[in-house]
């Protein structure tokens, strides 16, 4: 019998995943991460795909207070700012089910590890999703999103990838997720600071050589910190990933810019500012001046717009 999938976070990524899973016949519940003690709802959501096709699903949406079972798979697709509260709520459910963090950023798993979660997975999200209207999303997978166990010595639960994977929103198992987490975090440091500060779409890096030059500075700084953290990364690999995403999401606006425009908090603390914090702990803060400064400017811009 297929596991019930609880998707926590009713934003652009959470709803896109839920629509894909529903169309694949999975047992899916969408949980609002930001509100509680609300009545159950059903929302009709349309997903517009990059090939011009469309998926539609009527999604059951609950809040945490309505969740009693501790079985199945729990996918955290909300902003990582909410992870402390979500970890608290899942701990109270006493779940031993797999928890998949469908979020990008560095050290976002800390709240779960500190509360003793061990059946814990990270997914490096390689897809973009953006609301076109309140009930329609534009969704583009760039590649299959890798999922790996945070504890590299733990047995991998194959059900996790089997149940989450669909042709529309593909996933793939990997054995060493931490290197990929850093690679994507570095790419996101670029997109989530440069694009909001310039007020431009994601395509700027493949269109404008000057923007790509700035990206190279950030990538070089972050690779140095990753290397001192025990991970060997290649600039060319990260550069190619960034350009691939820039081309695939040309015309789309990065989540941080959308958040600033909508007066919402951003996740820049888990990107540029977390790289700066790690650098500081290594005595290398002066080596990430560009990454840190762009992150601080983005955080200030977010604060001034709230």
TrEMBL record:
Transmembrane segments annotated in the record for this chain: none
GO molecular function list: 2-dehydropantoate 2-reductase activity
InterPro entries per record: 6-PGluconate_DH-like_C_sf (IPR008927), 6PGD_dom2 (IPR013328), ApbA (IPR003710), KPA_reductase (IPR013752), KPR-Related (IPR051402), KPR_N (IPR013332), NAD(P)-bd_dom_sf (IPR036291)
Residue span(s) of domain Ketopantoate reductase C-terminal: 177-285
EC number(s) recorded for this UniProt protein: 1.1.1.169
Cellular component aspect of the GO annotation: cytoplasm
Reactions catalysed: (R)-pantoate + NADP(+) = 2-dehydropantoate + NADPH + H(+)
Ranges where the Ketopantoate reductase N-terminal domain occurs: 5-112
Keywords tagged on the record: NADP, Oxidoreductase, Pantothenate biosynthesis
Pathway: Cofactor biosynthesis; (R)-pantothenate biosynthesis; (R)-pantoate from 3-methyl-2-oxobutanoate: step 2/2
Role, per record: Catalyzes the NADPH-dependent reduction of ketopantoate into pantoic acid.
Family from the record: Belongs to the ketopantoate reductase family.
Name this polypeptide is given: 2-dehydropantoate 2-reductase
